[in-house]
Every structure is written in C-alpha cells, then in structure tokens.
Request: fold
Amino acid sequence: MALGISLLFASFFSIFLGAGLILMKDNVIAILFPVIPGIWFYNIAHDMWTDYREVKAKLHARFAG
Reply:
C-alpha cells in the first residue's frame, strides 16, 4: 500500500514537472510550477522512508533478541 501511495505522489509530481517544463518556454515564473510540488513530494517521501526505517529496526530488534 505504501508503494502505491508513493507511486501516486510521484505521478502527481510528474504531471506538474511536465506542465512546468512546457510552460517555461513562455514564462520564467513557471519554474515554481514543478518546484513547489517537488518540495512537497520530497517531504512526504522523506517522512515515509524515515518511518519505514524505524519500523524495520523495531521488527529487527523484536525478532533478533
């Protein structure tokens, strides 16, 4: 399920990235179009990865000893 959610967010970011690249030909301010969702996506992915590592460490500690 987490992989599906990550794929959803990556697809969402890719749409904004593509739109921003197309619009940058005519308007320089369109650089914000992919940057803002990119920061949002990075924060979500970073939190998800941190939580995954914490849970993995807890499971390892529970079953190792």
